[in-house]
Amino acid sequence: MPYERIRAAIVVKQRILADEALLRRLQTATEACVATFQRGGKVLFCGNGGSAADAQHLAAELSGRFYLDRPPLFAEAMHVNTSFLTAVANDYGYDHAFSRLTTAMGRSGDVLFLISTSGNSRNVLAAAVAGKRAGCTLVGMTGAGGGELGHLVDILINIPSTDTPRIQEGHLLLGHILCEDVERILFGQTPS
Q1: pTM given for the model
Q2: What is the pLDDT of residues 114-135, one digit of tens each?
Q3: CB-side exposure of 126: number of CA atoms within 13 Å?
Q4: Which SUPFAM superfamilies does the record cross-reference, listed alphabetically (predicted)?
Q5: Does the annotation list 64 as a binding residue?
Q6: Exposed, middle or buried by CB within 10 Å (0-12, 13-18, 19+), for 40?
Q7: Which residue of 54, 62, 87, 121 has the fewest CB atoms within a 10 Å radius of its CB?
Q8: What CA–CA distance (Å, rounded) separates 20 from 38?
């Protein structure tokens, strides 16, 4: 029966709810996205595996819509161009897949979300370095410790867990809150 896993998910969400510093960092990330969109900038996302799915999901919430029928926002998950991804992985190695695209796409004032449950994914770390060089605001989404990524980013959203599925669930929860708040601030009221 799934009871223990559901209880574990609830415990992580209770930890998130009790972590005022984490929730303030989420607010800071939201404000960075709003400021970027107001300036005509973009929000980029990268991650591997389940984190790639989260990157694509959150980019779609911003570029499509969340609650409101409103203009699209410039948000993109960097792994969706499979021709680019496979060419770079083949020619340069997978560690360079996101950093090359960050160099091509990232501009000063853009926001780059770097999603890695461990905080140690080599290609995500390389993207962080490239994003810093480009002048992007770096938002890391990790598990409890933050890994190496925690030392590179401007804003760390580290879910208080070491269990990958619970971390990913936390990323999606906080990502949805961010998307809802960005939409509300830019375009008006959303349901609560």
Answers
A1: 0.96
A2: 999 999 999 999 999 999 999 9
A3: 14
A4: SIS domain (SSF53697)
A5: no
A6: exposed
A7: 87
A8: 27
